[in-house]
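Quick start: what a row looks like.
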Amino acid sequence: MRSAFFAMVCLGVGGILILAACRGGRVKDPCSLLTKADVEAVVGESFEEPVRMRLIAGFEQCIFAASSDPGNRRLEVWTPGSQSCAETMKNFRSSPHTVVGGIGDEAADDKVLEMLWVRQESSCFAVSYQSAGDPRGREVREMLARKALEQLPR
């Protein structure tokens, strides 16, 4: 009964796109997308256990700090919190970026911010690799974004 009422509310508010969001496809915990082992396997060095943080505007962040240099080498996974994925991607695309094909439905990489935002249906997230000079920065972001896509709710 409750789920039928919820579905009617979702449909009444605006159709299929709203229904997709109401189904719970959005990622609430960025630490659910990558494990410490995932990060270590791709980057090739040891990382501390991840720390989850809630930021301004409801953004959620999961931080993996490199054991060897936690202040300068870290990997972060971001989710938009209360902001919609469409709005998040629109805001990100307004900054200088490179469109990346073959990752999710839409992906854009910002070399300056060292951040790759990815949208897959109604879910989105970002992978940020503060590489401290590692020339594989974008490659690492892309590899981990593909790994994170495997964990999205279906």
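That is the whole record. Residues 26-149 form a domain with the Protein Transport Mog1p; Chain A fold (CATH 3.40.1000). The mean pLDDT is 80.
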